[in-house]
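Module 6 notes. Inverse folding takes a fixed backbone as the condition and produces residue identities as the prediction. Think of it as a translation problem where the source language is geometry and the target language is the twenty amino acids. Below is one complete input and output pair. Work through it position by position during the lab.
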């Protein structure tokens, strides 16, 4: 079935979880598979919550969060974190557009990339540790909405390059994929959160995506595969900070 194929492709793309191999894959299949990114984000959030819930019964919240966040990050293969570091290195270089894009493609980690990763992880660590595992809803919503933010970025922003992951996805997703991912995420938020909190979630995601895409457009002329990962990390950071503020 096509829907099973799309789900497997999304899992392969977004995680390191073993999945059955697929022999024949079209470009359309890969683009359609992003429909399941929010669902996979929510599932990863369930793992994050499960580890956090178990560990906080035995150790203080901060070390419990260090372990649960490590498990969560490893399950993604640190893919999005790598995108954040590459994007930060490109921005931090203060080089012209083409030179900055070449720096972004460099697999080596520079000082700005390392600093960005440390700050993002510290922010998520402290924010998650301040959220009680009894409040399980943010653990699903934040990872889910961060994946939705990537889909929105793919749907509305042009590619900064003529080749690469950004050009493969940028403005090439079907309307029903964008609508399906958005509706799914919105329904989940409304179902598990108070309406006021669900509206705050919508606001922070829309604002984060808009500001980030505008920044990437001015800096690089569009988005890339690395900036999608960076947006995921930044939207997660913002989401955890918002929930930490709402809970306290």
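Target side of the pair, the amino acids:
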């Amino acid at each position: 079935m096509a829907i099973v194929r799309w789900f497997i492709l999304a899992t392969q793309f977004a995680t390191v979880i073993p999945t059955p191999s697929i022999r024949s894959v079209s470009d359309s299949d890969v683009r359609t598979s992003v429909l399941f990114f929010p669902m996979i984000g929510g599932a990863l959030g369930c793992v994050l919550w499960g580890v956090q819930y178990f560990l906080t019964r035995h150790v203080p919240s901060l070390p419990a969060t260090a372990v649960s966040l490590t498990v969560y990050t490893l399950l993604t293969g640190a893919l999005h974190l790598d995108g954040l570091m590459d994007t930060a290195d490109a921005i931090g270089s203060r080089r012209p557009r083409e030179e900055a894009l070449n720096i972004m493609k460099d697999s080596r980690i520079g000082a700005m990339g390392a600093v960005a990763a440390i700050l993002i992880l510290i922010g998520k660590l402290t924010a998650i540790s301040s959220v009680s595992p009894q409040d399980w809803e943010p653990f699903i919503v934040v990872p889910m909405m961060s994946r939705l933010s990537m889909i929105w970025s793919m749907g509305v922003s042009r590619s900064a390059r003529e080749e690469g992951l950004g050009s493969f996805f940028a403005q090439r997703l079907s309307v029903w994929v964008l609508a399906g991912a958005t509706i799914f995420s919105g329904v989940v938020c409304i179902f598990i959160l108070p309406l006021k909190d669900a509206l705050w979630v919508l606001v922070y995601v829309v604002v984060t995506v808009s500001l980030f895409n505008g920044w990437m457009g001015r800096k690089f002329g569009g988005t890339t595969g690395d900036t999608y990962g960076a947006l995921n990390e930044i939207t997660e950071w913002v989401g955890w900070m918002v929930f930490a503020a709402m809970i306290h």
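Reference fact for the lab report: Residues 195-220 form the longest helix (26 residues).
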